[in-house]
Amino acid sequence: xxxxxxxxxxxxxxxxxxxxxxxxxxxxxxxxxxxxxxxxxxxxxxxxxxxxxxxxxxxxxxxxxxxxxxxxxxxxxxxxxxxxxxxxxxxxxxxxxxxxxxxxxxxxxxxxxxxxxxxxxxxxxxxxxxxxxxxxxxxxxxxxxxxxxxxxxxxxxxxxxxxxxxxxxxxxxxxxxxxxxxxxxxxxxxxxxxxxxxxxxxxxxxxxxxxxxxxxxxxxxxxxxxxxxxxxxxxxxxxxxxxxxxxxxxxxxxxxxxxxxxxxxxxxxxxxxxxxxxxxx
Length: 281
Known about the structure:
By secondary structure, the chain is mainly α.
């Protein structure tokens, strides 16, 4: 497998693209072996083999995952076979979760305040504040410490670590609470402080699932919080380049799944054209 994924596949973006390519190649190798396809790069990286793998060899995988794997494999296939001769099979894009309405946000704040344990109250509020206010992903929230939040006058920023490292200005309505939570946490973790398995992928989900709440109250999820952040910026007309930078999203076309929730947001064709223009520069 190593000869199919050169070290430079990670590129300037860091180790994440390399890891994605390695995972895609492992799946492709298993798929090819089961069908008697020879192991040489010229066979495995044939565009038809890649297409068959992405369309029928990934049962249960989300369309976005199929597209990510195909993009990684197409990059590897280019030096072997040149540009693909036909357009790839279109995958239905995964729909983004709906953003929270203002009324739902008020209910979520009440849910956070209703937690009896102070640490649970602070963690529930952190999910909401740094999800809706800064658009953090689960792993980014779990790693965030109070020292990663900076305040300069009324402007509050979050220094996000990890593969999509960036600086995010907190939405004005959440800036004060973000700064307050950070001050209380000092250099400790803002979400679930203390010893914990922070690498567990459902660490945030398992916490929010156990919050004390009225059955009729909206469920607090970081996915909807992040969607609220992105949709808010789309509605406000934040320039695409700036929005990609503060969300850690690589391609403008990926914003289309959120734009479906926002009247007047750029259509998918315009976002795709933005990507092509950037790649051509």
